[in-house]
Amino acid sequence: MPKQVVIPPGTTTPIAPFVPGTLADGVVYVSGTLPFDADNNVVHVGDPAAQTRHVLETIKTVIETAGGNMADVTFNSIFITDWAHYAAINQVYAEYFPGDKPARFCIQCGLVKPDALVEIATIAHIGTAGSGA
Predict the structure, then answer these.
(1) CATH number for 77
(2) Which of 11, 34, 98, 112 is exposed most, by the fewest CB atoms within 10 A?
(3) 64: domain range?
(4) What order of strands is seen across the sheet that includes strand 27-33?
(5) Which value, in Å, is the radius of gyration of the alpha carbons in the chain?
């Protein structure tokens, strides 16, 4: 199966050369997702919980556009700017993965825009029924 780009309706041009997601062989790879608005400005400045919710909603949209749902997520790569935000990020994260949790890692690092507190990249296995985009 050739790869298909996954671009949810209303997606704006990214700040770098990438697409929101790629579907290949029933697996959706979601690019690193930052808490950006339609103009690529950081939303909810200073609020790690609200930024995490925004990021996970964006990821959810990419996965749903490909034909899956959040229960299909198998792996998340989480990047945070400060361990002080870890508890707030995890509280929101747990809302999006209430049952069996996906595997993941979390590291502290700098992000592309200083006001961004969290970035998440995701892999979801949706099988062969995904519609692509």
Answers:
(1) 3.30.1330.40
(2) 98
(3) 4-125
(4) 4-6, 21-24, 27-33, 118-125, 73-80, 103-108
(5) 14
